[in-house]
Every structure is written in structure tokens, then in C-alpha cells.
Amino acid sequence: MLESLMGEGPFRSGIKKFMQKYKFGSVTTPDLWATLNEDADFDVPKVMDTWTLQMGYPVVSMEKFYNHAGDEKIRLSQTRFLIDPDATDTTTSPYNYEWYIKFDFLSQNGTSGSVWMDRGEAVFDWPGDGSVWIKGNVGHTGIYRVNYDVHTWTALADQLSNNHSVFTAGNRAGLLNDAFNLARANYLDYSLALDLSKYLSSETDYVPWRTVSTSFSELDTLLYHRPVYGLWRSYVRAQVEEIYADLGFEDKGGHIEKYLRGTILSLACDSGNNDCQDKALDFFDKFTNPATADDIPSDFRNLVYKYGISEGGKADWELMLERYLNEQQANERSRLMYGLAQTKEIWLISRYLDYCWNETVVKSQDFFTVLNYLADNPVANPIVWDWVRTNWQNIIDKFGLNNRLFGRLIPGITDTFTTELQLQEMHTLFEMYPDAGAGASGRQQALERVQSNINWLKRYEDEITSWLEANV
User: Fold this and answer.
1) Which residues of the chain fall short of a pLDDT of 50?
2) What is the model's pTM?
3) What is the C-alpha to C-alpha distance for residues 285 and 267, in angstroms, rounded to an integer?
4) 324 by DSSP, 3-state: which?
5) What is the SS3 assignment for 145?
6) CB atoms within 10 A of CB 128
7) Alpha-carbon distance 400 to 419, whole Å?
8) CB 31 within 8 A of CB 22
9) Which of 18, 124, 245, 249 is the S-S candidate for 35 at Cβ 3.0 to 4.6 Å?
10) DSSP run (H or E) holding 240
11) What is the pLDDT of residues 148-181, one digit of tens each?
12) What is the 3-state secondary structure (H, E, C) of 163-206?
């Protein structure tokens, strides 16, 4: 961020001066700011202290308005961004959670500029070039989100649908990231965020897909047990259909193409693309044959193992267990451990849980990894939750309350919970075992997350359902 504020040349010159001046010596942050300030055209310490001496980051809200003379203006305001709209912020800041922000913008017809927000609001002229939108935080080098007015969000969504190449891949990713996170935080209607995503059927770059896959995954988790889930899967499946067909289920291309393919294959298979799932099972057939087991590309293995085991039965699961027990390579052992957790057979899930106590099968250091892999399986999650509660004292006896992995166990299992009953079960467990040890903060975070999930469904499920019914 600081390099983008100063410019590449002055920033690198300042860093060289700093390293030369203080080589072999001890330094403090003010020493760095003072040296960089020599090459900057703004007060580096004053600006950067607001970013380094207070927590979090801001959301900048942009509103178009007309002044008394009828001139088009833009008003910028800022507030601290909190992902949970129901959270109570009890922390304090020496800067009252206000930042010095250099707001960069680019208009539809090419006008660019910037304006400083001096720990408060700023007003500037709407570009007089006939543009219907402006894009803030160009390049997303600033550590802030931008929330546009409804008219501008709609215009940006239309622009993406009509010609998304007007924006760089980074700016498209930034728009998607801002929109879905602002929707989660209740700054923005989900319908607007989803409108923005409609262009994805023509998106071919990795960065926007990688960005939106995180938001889609969160929605998938929250909607999994809801009646609208079928429509949601249909929407995602339609968005990835074209790029899935272009990329194919084959190992080729450079590293960026391979990263993109991995993201798209996960979205396609998880949303029910039949061809994707069939090809994953074809690769799993190679796994079952010792002569071809090594022919599965490493980039596909997690996906292949997931669908091979979830659609397979006892024989497939036991074959993978045997391979796991004999595997010496750590990465492949981890993939096999993950694959075993994807079964839909309840009795195999229970068997895997029992193996957690047997260190000849599941090593002690993998105990919590297996539980978390199983918890990520929607079929296994409630079984794992019951098992952990039943065996809580046994786990304490084995690992102790101050084991950091034990402390992270509850958040890992419960982050998909969405009901009041599940929340009450958590409270009951914590009341039975009040000594949390290393898990004290994890317990609190888990309770807050589940309450947030419950509130999210109450607040947004109907809106998302209506949007999907109208667009799928």
C-alpha cells in the first residue's frame, strides 16, 4: 500500500536509504517512516500511524449527489469494517478508527484521479465525461473496501455483463470480493452482489474465479441444509459450465492455468456437473489398479479421492486405507487421509473415528487433522460432533487442555452450524466442561460464528431465495 501511495521509484529509493543508513544497527518503525518521508510528497508518519497503530481497516462509502448549484458530486465517508453486523465493538483506538486514505478512482470513460480522506469525509466532482460509473480503489492496492450507491453498483454489474474486459482481472476480483463481503456485513443487499456475479459465465481469468470461489463456498455451507440449496447449486453449475468445458479434466498448461483448473473443477464437481463427477470417478478407477494408481495428476488427487470414496463403498474405502497405511510420502498420506474422510457410509465414518484411538492407524499428530477432515464432510459432521462430545474427557486425558490443536477443534467442527439447537448443544458442552484451557478463545469465536450463521439465515435467506428463483 505504501509503495502505491509514494510511487515505485520514491518508495524503493527510500527503502535503499533506510537499509544503508541503519545497516548493522537497530531500528524502530518511526525510523523507517522518517527515512521514507524524505522521498514522499505527503506526511508518511501521520498517514501510516493510522494504519499501523489501530486494528482493522475501513469501508469507504461512496454516494453521488447534487449540490445547490445542480453540480454532480461524490461524497466519501468511512467507517471501520466489521464482518459481523451484530458484533459489538468494545475496543478503542487512538485515532477513533479513522484513517488517512488516498482514494483512487477511474471512470467509465477513462477519467482517473485521487482524493485524500483526512480521517473523515471527502467530496469531489463527478467526472464530467458522461460516465455512469466510477471504480474506486483502482488496482486494489489500498487496504479498504468500497461500498458504492445502488445506482453505481447496478451500473458496475451491467458493465461486467456487457464487457468485463474494461476492468483488469485484479479489479474484477476486487469488485467481487468487496461485494460479497459487504453483503455478508449487511452494508449491501445480496441481490446486488449476486447480480455482479452473473458475468462469471464469461470469465476466464484465475484471480476473479479464485476470489469468488471463497464467497461461493461460504454460501454453499450456509445454504446446504436449506430448501434453496438445489437452486444455488444450479446457479453455480451454470456459471462454471463454459469454462469447465474449455479447460477440461486434464493436466496441461502453465501453473496459472493449472491453478484455475483446480478451482473450476472443484466448483463444477461440487455443484453437480455430471461430466466432472464422471471424469473424477474415471480417474479413481486408475487408483484402484496398482498399475495405473500413479497416473493421477497430483493437482487432481484430492478431488478424485473425494468423489471416488463418496460414491464408492467398503471395498474402495478399505483399499484407500491400505494405501494410506503403506504410504511413506507425507503429502500423499495427507491426501489419502482426506479421502478416507469423504465417505457417506455412516458405519465407515464411525470406524474411522474409532481408528483415531489406534496409533498404528492414525498417528497421534494426525488425530485432530482426521477429525477436521471428517467435520468438513456434511454427512460426517453431526457424527463427529456427537463423538467429540461423548469422548471429551478421553481427549483431555490424551492431549491435555493446553494442546493448541485441541483448542482449535471446536471452531473447526462447528463453523457450519446454523441452528439454535446446535448452539444450545455447544453451550451445554461448555457448561459441563468449563475449563477450556487453550480453547478459551476458540470457544468464544465458535459461539460468535454460529450465532452469526443463525442471524445470517434469518436476515438473508429469503432475499437470496427470491433472487435465485428469478435468475435460475
Assistant:
1) none
2) 0.93
3) 22
4) helix
5) strand
6) 11
7) 30
8) yes
9) 18
10) helix 229-247
11) 999 999 999 999 999 999 999 999 999 999 999 9
12) HHHHCCHHHHHHHHHHHHHHHHCCCCCHHHHHHHHHHHHHCCCH
